[in-house]
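Run folding on both entries below.
>entry_1
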Amino acid sequence: MRMCELRQKEVVNICTGKRLGCIVDVEIDVRCGEVEAVIIPGPGKICGFFGTDCEYVLPFSCIRRIGPDIILVEIQEEKFLQKL
């Protein structure tokens, strides 16, 4: 699968049913060429508007299923939300 294909899929947390957004970046282990984590922008500052000052860094192991238009992850959101 290509990065451009991943970026077009929406990420949903199966624990809460919440839509997290779309993948904007990935972390790759250059030694073995494997994807370590996917990066998703965090929630907006004010009611989802005016940008964000955090992001979700989701280990690839948290991905449960990749479908044609959606990626299902199983996470505790507060655990993977990081400040920029």
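>entry_2
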Amino acid sequence: MKKPMISHHVANAAAGLRHVFVRDLELQALIGIHEHEKHEPQRIIVNIDLSVKEEAGPQSDDISHVVSYEIVVRKVEAIIAEGHINLVETLCEKIAAACLRDKRVMAARVRVEKPDIIANARSVGVEIERQR
């Protein structure tokens, strides 16, 4: 039986979840199916919400004991640096998978927007959610 997808992207003491997020990360990426998109970087906006299992007991004041949003941003930058990606969906999947490699991350919601594609739209894009 398949486990139902339940969104946990709010800090929840009863569930032992912390909400770690990145908002409106603006980057240049080679993304898209059109020929010019394969050679000219374009602006993308990335939003990430992570449900992170909190450790039991008091937390020490040490960055190694938490999921660092700085490391999450570096993971996104590294994925983009790998080169051209055809689909926004593919980029979302790669980002979610990179976040879920950290065993403390229970779920990842990733939104990638292309704000400069449709002239009369503020942005277009894709949002996914993946759970452990």
